[in-house]
Design a protein that fits this description.
It is a single chain. The chain is 73% helix and 0% strand. It is mainly α. The chain folds into two domains: 216 residues, Up-down Bundle (Growth Hormone, Chain: A); 206 residues, Up-down Bundle (Growth Hormone, Chain: A), CATH 1.20.1250.20. The longest helix is centred in the N-terminal third of the chain and has 37 residues.
Length: 577
């Protein structure tokens, strides 16, 4: 018995070692390191900019506008660059540019924190302004490189590592999202503690050091994944669409590695022939990025999953998320930073539950129907947010002018409100100061005024709906992500996902503009109703996509035959979904 048990124990130990050295686990580890650094930096840079510019949101707002505008305009170009170069080159270049930019930005911020007084006196403060411009520019470059990394790893590498197994692809997508959920909470908390008990300068030094170490480890992990997955070296520029669109179609077994290498060489060389380069004029070179931008959006529109991608983008036009807007509103309604941190933790838990629900629903009902069920679940939960607008404690009053407070202060020659120094618990809970009342302290925090307590029924229903809706939200997000992975041809994955990122940023930018036009808490209820309307429109678009894809079998939800692909299409439908 002991001898029989010994080989079994060795097999188990060998399987554990094999998993921890597999390309899949190494990809997870590299993504965890990358996401941890990203979340720390995105949290810290906003606080740094507020701290540097006299506790004002001006630099933070400019930074957010520059980031959103850059991805909106350059998303297609970034995706096209991803498509035109080898996978390893794209991953390594974007990794180095991203981390080097963050390190350089951290060093500049440390210099500003150390010599801010001296910089103010040099050239009438223009040198300090130049430093601010440098910080925002370099941070924007880091964000663009991060976008390229996300496109190549999460939309391309993961598909190749999963191979022809859709279930494995779904599990990997869900695991990636769980890592995102955990780092969204833990990384800001970690760097927030360092900044609270140390100083902003120490925070800059820590983030710069982390990115330097992380860059070296991630570079090694990418190389290991590339070595363990030979198919990553095979990147064709042109292939029959039927071969590349269907993930479960058996690939040609007689393809030789040399053919795959030749495809890459042809792709890199044909666009840069010396004779063509001489013939191309200056005007054509200037026009090339605009042509790429146009072609990317046209290609995105012609995709079979266009409506599904648009449906996902419309979900970004909402104030019903745990960003600075919603948490700032909650703070005006009397919720403390500690309560908000607990609510954010609960939202992370429901987000992870959404990834679990996605894998289960996909096995039971198929990929397209999973998106329908997830959308219905999200919308049903958001009904609580609609109800909260009309419940006791809701400050909704459309008769109040959004700019009444600003106008009164201007006519009375009073200074406009600025942001007080962020409290540690508020920093840890929200990652941003309060944007709605221009302060990090609640509106009812003055003991001398002693206002009546605000009923919590409205804000409780609001956050109950937001937290519960994240189960459907993340399941729907994973559904659309996998639809894009499976149905976009390999040679267009980069540019199509780049345009998808641009659409997401466009709707996200519109939601911030919406808040700027109605910034007072009395108008927040209207923003909630508009947000739910956009979510409904997004899911209507997805319903139309599902209807066109599945036809009469749309509402037939049965357990698929395990011997067949989980997302088998109905007879006569050539789409993989």
């Amino acid at each position: 018995m002991a001898r029989a048990a010994e080989p079994q124990g060795r097999r188990r130990g060998g399987s554990v070692v094999a998993y921890f050295t597999s390309a899949k686990f190494l990809l997870y580890l590299g993504h965890a390191l990358s996401t941890w650094g990203d979340r720390m930096w995105h949290f810290a840079v906003s606080v740094f900019l507020v701290e540097l510019y006299g506790n004002s949101l001006l630099l933070t707002a400019v930074y957010g506008l520059v980031v959103a505008g850059s991805v909106l305009l350059l998303g297609a170009l970034i995706g096209d660059w991803v498509d035109k170069n080898s996978r390893l080159k794209v991953a390594q270049t974007s990794l180095i540019v991203q981390n080097a930019s963050v390190i350089l930005c951290g060093i500049i911020l440390m210099i500003i924190f150390l010599f801010k007084t001296q910089l103010l006196t040099l050239y009438h403060g223009w040198l300090l302004t130049v430093c601010y411009i440098l910080v925002i520019t370099i941070a924007n470059i880091a964000n663009l490189a991060s976008t390229a990394t996300a496109i190549t790893i999460q939309r391309d590498w993961i598909v190749v590592v999963a191979g022809e197994d859709r279930s494995k692809l779904a599990d990997m997508n869900a695991t990636i999202r769980r890592i995102d959920q955990l780092t969204n909470i833990l990384a800001p908390m970690a760097v927030g503690q360092i900044m609270t008990f140390g100083s902003p300068m120490i925070g800059c030094g820590f983030i710069s050091g982390w990115n330097l170490m992380s860059m070296c480890v991630e570079y090694l992990l990418l190389w290991k994944v590339y070595q363990k997955t030979p198919t990553l070296a095979l990147k064709s520029a042109k292939a029959e669409e039927s071969e590349l669109k269907q993930l479960n179609v058996t690939k040609e077994s007689d393809m030789k590695p040399a053919e795959g290498v030749q495809l890459i060489v042809e792709k890199d060389v044909t666009g840069f022939e010396p004779q063509q380069e001489k013939e191309v004029g200056c005007a054509a070179r200037i026009a090339e990025p605009f042509i790429t931008f146009r072609d990317g959006w046209v290609a995105y529109y012609n995709q079979p999953v266009f409506l599904a991608g648009m449906g996902l983008a419309f979900l970004y036009m909402t104030v019903l998320g745990f960003d600075c807007i919603t948490t700032g509103y909650a703070y005006t309604q009397g919720l403390s930073g500690s309560v908000l941190s607990l609510l954010m933790g609960a939202s992370a838990v429901t987000g992870i539950m959404g990834t679990v629900a996605f894998t289960w629903l996909r096995r039971k009902c198929g990929l397209v129907r999973t998106g329908l069920i997830s959308g219905l679940a999200q919308f049903a939960c958001l009904i609580l947010c609609v109800i909260s607008v009309f419940m006791p404690g809701s400050p909704m009053d459309l008769t109040v002018s959004p700019f009444a407070d600003i106008s009164a202060r201007l006519f009375e020659n009073e200074p406009l409100p600025t942001i007080a120094s962020p409290e540690p618990e508020m920093i840890l809970a929200t990652g941003m100061p309060n944007l709605l009342n221009g302060s990090t302290t609640p509106a009812n925090s003055d003991p001398e005024m002693s206002p009546e307590p605000v009923p919590l029924i409205s804000v409780s229903l609001l956050f109950a709906g937001v937290i519960a809706a994240r189960v459907g939200l993340w399941s729907f997000d994973l559904t659309v992500t996998q639809l894009l992975q499976e149905n976009v041809v390999e040679s267009e994955r980069g540019i199509i996902n780049g345009v998808q990122n641009s659409m997401n940023y466009l709707l996200d930018l519109l939601h911030f503009i919406m808040v700027i036009l109605a910034p007072n808490p009395e108008a927040f209820g209207l923003l909630v109703l508009i947000s739910v309307s956009f979510v409904a429109m997004g899911h209507i678009m997805y319903f139309r996509f599902a209807q066109k894809t599945l036809g009469k079998q749309l509402f037939v939800c049965c357990t698929p035959d395990p011997k067949t692909a989980p997302d088998s299409s109905p007879p006569g439908n050539t789409s993989t979904v």
